[in-house]
Here is the input.
Amino acid sequence: MKVFSWQDAVSGHIDEKILGKGTALTVGVFDGIHIGHKELLKAVLEGKKNGFSCGVVTFTDKIFCISKTSVNPIETLEERLSRFEKMGFEFVILIDFTKDVASMEGKAFLDVLYEKCALKYLVEGEDFRFGAGGLTGKNEIEIFCKERGLLCTFIPPVLFNGERVSSTLIRKLLKEGKKDLAARLI
Here is the structure.
């Protein structure tokens, strides 16, 4: 699995062999790859059936220091990268979360994925939001993809005991000492 920086992507320095017939991508922090993430990641890997190279756009651990609610990651960056590789992803684009990245509008971010990373298929969770102020979500992504003839899929939340599986839930379970239950979700 190849690892590229966001600067590599913006500068158009992604390996041509990867860009080939286009890419299937997802964007997210993927802090502690849980059963909800796994459903989403499996959907991205379905892009291989169309000949797409499958990749993940994610963040370095710096995002945990800058975010409004500074937390420790559930899994280290190395652990996440190892899991992506074992799942069969061909590449990862790592973003070092800076003020410039945080202020980037969602459409500009998608433009980079489309123009520089040969985006053909995008998979996200139904509640995914990104871009400056979190103003870009499902509706904006659908419009962007439709205008460019791209495929997009939105994965519904995965529930466990009626509650949406999330990194926040896993942190809560760990804090409550329910390690076995948290482990079932990862």
